[in-house]
């Protein structure tokens, strides 16, 4: 038994069995199914909306905790010159270095750290966020945050930019999400998308242990060709596209791959900052030529695309 392809509706077959959540430790065993017609990949089985909501609230979403040494250090790091230097060297998959003007909507803005950076870069930034705790935290910094699905969101004015930073792969219907993004954008407005590349070298090396399967939260898994086709169908033209391989993603995948027999141990190790920082330094330093070659050859771990509404 399998679900029809979320891209084209054709039948799917199992590509990778026995996938577990090796990032957050949510329960369950899943598989990755590939389409027999277009090659698109998706997570199977897909939890229903109520189950997904419960999983997000327990394992994934911001819960309102802002105290503690880790939270304080993370906050200082994200708003430091060192973070911007790291993005310039390692790759900016969240568009935090992108400067400009106009109305910007960060879809899935969480507690609003990105909103603060977009505002500092010149944008009139707003957010869309279903998590009430996270939305309240973002509003505490003075931002307008709308607690709605994009399908239900009707803005008073259209936006010049919509950001989908590691969001589209979470959508049960990515085609509908892009149609809604187009609806809220002004003519000539842009959508900025980043998401994992299912055809990356790390995905091939790590197989079922690749952290960016990220089951059950990642529902669809994109290649560049699939993303570009979906954007064209939604009325967008590509402005810029590149591959990035964040050293953090490399570190997490290597830990998960090394500790494949013990997902809980892998998760604990991914939370050890000194270990992860050391692996990131090795990935970005010693393996820099390899990561560069992967990115140049379209095998980087993350697709980063800006597209204009026609």
Nearest-integer average pLDDT? 92
Task: Write the element-wise H/E pattern from the N-terminal end onward.
Answer: EEEHHHEHEHEEHEHEHEHHHHE
Radius of gyration over alpha carbons?
19 Å
Q: How far is the N terminus from the C terminus?
A: 39 Å
Briefly summarize what is shown:
The protein has 310 residues and is an alpha/beta fold. 38% of the residues lie in helices and 22% in strands. The longest helix is centred in the C-terminal third of the chain and has 13 residues, at 273-285.
Q: Key terms for this structure?
A:
310 residues; alpha/beta; seven-stranded mixed β-sheet; 12 helices; 11 strands; globular
Structure overview:
By secondary structure, this protein is an alpha/beta fold. It is 38% helix and 22% strand. It contains 12 helices and 11 strands. It has a 7-stranded mixed β-sheet, sandwiched between helices. Helix 9 runs antiparallel to helix 10 and helix 9 (247-258) crosses helix 11. It starts with 11 loop residues before the first strand and ends with a strand. The model has no long low-confidence stretch (mean pLDDT 92).
What is this structure's SSE topology?
Layout: E1 12-19, E2 30-35, E3 41-44, H1 49-60, H2 69-78, H3 81-90, E4 103-107, H4 113-120, E5 124-128, H5 132-139, E6 145-146, E7 159-165, H6 174-184, E8 185-196, H7 201-206, E9 220-221, H8 224-233, E10 236-244, H9 247-258, H10 263-270, H11 273-285, H12 288-296, E11 302-309
Helix pairs in contact: 9-10, 9-11
């Amino acid at each position: 038994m399998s679900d029809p392809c979320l891209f084209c509706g054709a039948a799917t077959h199992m590509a990778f069995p026995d996938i577990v959540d090796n990032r957050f430790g949510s329960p369950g065993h899943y598989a990755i199914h590939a389409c027999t017609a277009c090659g698109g990949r998706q997570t199977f089985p897909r939890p229903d909306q109520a189950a997904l909501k419960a999983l997000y609230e327990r394992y994934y979403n911001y819960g309102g905790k802002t105290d503690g040494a880790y939270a304080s250090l993370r906050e200082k790091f994200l708003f430091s010159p060192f973070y911007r230097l790291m993005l310039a060297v390692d790759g900016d998959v969240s568009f935090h270095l992108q400067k400009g003007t106009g109305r910007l909507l960060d879809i899935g803005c969480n507690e609003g750290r990105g909103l603060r950076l977009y505002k500092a870069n010149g944008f009139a930034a707003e957010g869309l966020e279903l998590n009430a705790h996270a939305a309240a935290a973002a509003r505490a910094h003075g931002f307008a945050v709308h607690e709605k699905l994009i399908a239900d969101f009707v803005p008073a004015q259209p936006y010049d930019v919509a950001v989908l930073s590691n969001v589209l792969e979470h959508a049960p219907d990515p085609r509908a999400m892009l149609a809604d993004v187009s609806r809220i954008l002004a003519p000539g407005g842009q959508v900025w998308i980043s998401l994992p590349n299912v055809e990356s070298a790390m995905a091939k090396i790590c197989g079922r242990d690749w952290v960016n399967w990220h089951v059950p939260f990642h529902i669809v898994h994109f290649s560049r060709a699939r993303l570009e086709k979906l954007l064209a169908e939604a009325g967008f033209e590509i402005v810029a596209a590149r591959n990035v391989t964040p050293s953090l993603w490399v570190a997490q995948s290597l830990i998960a791959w090394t500790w494949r027999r013990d997902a809980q141990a892998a998760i604990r190790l991914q939370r050890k900052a000194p270990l992860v920082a050391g692996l990131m330094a090795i990935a970005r330093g010693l393996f820099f030529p390899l990561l560069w070659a992967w990115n140049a050859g379209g095998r980087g771990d993350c697709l980063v695309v800006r597209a204009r509404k026609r």
